[in-house]
Amino acid sequence: MSDDIAVVLGTRPEIIKLGPVVRELGRRARVIHTGQHWDDTMSGQHLREQGLPERIEHLTGIGGDPRVVQIAAGIGQLAMAFQERRPRAIIVQGDTNSTSIGAQTGNYLGIPVIHVEAGLRSRDRDMPEEINRLVVGAVADIHCAATPHNAANLLSEGVDADRIEITGNTVVEATHRALQQSAPQIDLQTDGPFILATIHRPENTDDPAALLRILRALTQLPLPAVFVAHPRTIAAALRFELSDWLNGIDLLESVSHTQFLHLAQRASLIVSDSGGIQEEVTVLKKPLLVVRNSTERPESIHAGFAVLVKPDESIEAAAHRMLGNPDLLTRLQETPSPYGDGAAGRRIAELARRLAAG
User: The UDP-N-acetylglucosamine 2-epimerase domain covers which part of the protein (predicted)?
Assistant: First the structure.
């Protein structure tokens, strides 16, 4: 049997986190790319790094469109693809527009849906990702919760316990795999310790005051900042006439996931608004400042790897506190990741095979 389990993805995080599942499924995986992230920087190089099959189906005309257009157009195209060749089960991951496209299409066509990384909740409905999580949570048949906390969120919303599986998070094996791979060396402006930063969420890039606060902080941190800049962030800096603030930062506009993790492994501290990085630092054993209003991953904070720095708080002061803690790195080295043992991909693939068998 082959190609009977559809894996719907469309963004960099989904490619990375579903890579272990696709590899476990082998020929049974039918990979469909929505085109939400369409260029080589955000998509192509990550598909190659994950060793995903070349026989990938692609939806068209979605990348770069407003959210409502992406989801509406994606459901229409995916429905046609599934009506032509109906899968036995569908796997989606996380909280992107692509996740919502895959889950809604499957539910409307009566195809069982497995939601990987289910049960994350920020309780912040201003986050587009939170709405996607709620929508997918309402239509999924099997919920693969990474942690007991995620499972508890689902139970509190009325999801039947027999539809929830605590699998761990595939980010653990994805991170270990990336660190075992070689990556082209990146030349930095500094030879010494540095702070690695990434910023891309709308709450930080669509508000000029929020973006200015972050860029100014990156120039005033206690160590030199290496800024891996998302295309959205560069465009926002230009749009708000803030690009001069980038001159005092070591700016990297394109790195692969493997290169990024190797940089993170060398960094003294990470500053980011990424959800995935909140998980990856627990494998890397690195401290993180989460520059956001809220987080759907409290496990990283409770375990001591991350600190939430809200808009009214000083990024620079938080960095000084974290770097000034002499016992922090030793304690993090001894703290297990709350996201599992690195076998999530195998567990999810087995669930998918069982669901496909009825």
Answer: 29-351
How many other CB atoms sit within 10 Å of the CB of residue 160? 9
φ, ψ of residue 193 in degrees (nearest 5): -60, 150
Please determine whether the domains at 5-170+342-356 and 195-333 fall in the same fold group of CATH.
yes
Please determine, for residue 314, whether its predicted confidence score (pLDDT) is greater than 90.
Answer: yes
Q: Is the pLDDT of residue 49 over 90?
A: no
pLDDT over threshold 90, residue 358: no
Q: 5-170+342-356 architecture in CATH? A: 3-Layer(aba) Sandwich (3.40)
Q: Which residue has the tokens 């930063």?
A: 197
Dihedral, 63, 69, 75, 80 alpha carbons, nearest 10: -80
Residue 38: both structure tokens together: 């369409």
* Cα-only R_g, the chain: 20
Q: Percent of the chain scored above 70 by pLDDT?
A: 95
> Quick one: CA dihedral 197, 201, 206, 207, positive or negative?
negative
DSSP state of 189: S
Q: Do residues 265 and 286 lie in contact, with contact meaning Cβ atoms separated by under 8 Å?
A: yes
Q: What residues does each domain of the chain span? A: 5-170+342-356, 195-333
pLDDT tops 60 at residue 43: no
d(CA 344, CA 235): 36
The pair of three-digit structure tokens given for residue 180, joined into one six-digit string: 């075992």
Topology annotation, domain 195-333:
Rossmann fold (3.40.50)
pLDDT digits (tens, 9 = 90+) for 107-163: 999 999 999 999 999 999 989 999 999 999 999 999 999 999 999 999 999 999 999
